[in-house]
Prior knowledge:
CATH superfamily of the largest domain: SH3 Domains
Number of strands: 12
Strand content: 35-45%
Strand order of the largest sheet: 10-3-4-12-11
Amino acid sequence: MFASERSSPRIRRVGMDVVRRAIEMLRGSIDLASTAGSGTRVTLHLPLTLAIIDGLLVRVGNGRYVIPLSAIEECVALSAEEDTSSQGHSFLNIRDEIVPFLRLRELFDFGTPPDPFQKAVIVASGDQRVGLVMDQVIGDHQTVIKSLSRLHADVEAFSGATILGDGAVALILEVAHLVGHGRAHEEHAMAAE
Length: 193
């Protein structure tokens, strides 16, 4: 620290608790991982703000949603047999790995029946994965993200919205929240069994 900085009353140190509060106000999170002899790794997770991202446009009922491509691992078809046999369990077998899945139709409380050939998009946040089941994968979509208003600050499943070419609004899914929700649902189901 330079002598002029030491004497300046404007300089002050900011603790990690202040940083954590600032990140949480942005609806983000901070992870600290320390390893003896190696140091500390600080990982910041911030929600998407006004930006352009590549996304996957999907449909559930008559609603359209965007999943950020950076969070997608793969898309698989959910056969009628898998869907029927998984009722009450909500697990997929992806190359001999059990992956929990969420039916977006149930999560978003659509009252219409599902399409006969549903799709599951496997998304990841960190080292955790879940499948998101929807009616249709429409395709790639470059998305301009608009932040949600303060009235929607407690809605955690969406990180923003975008306006599609036809003037309709599509909500952008907050993958980290959905992965956490899917993992909590998985743990609850396993505990019940």
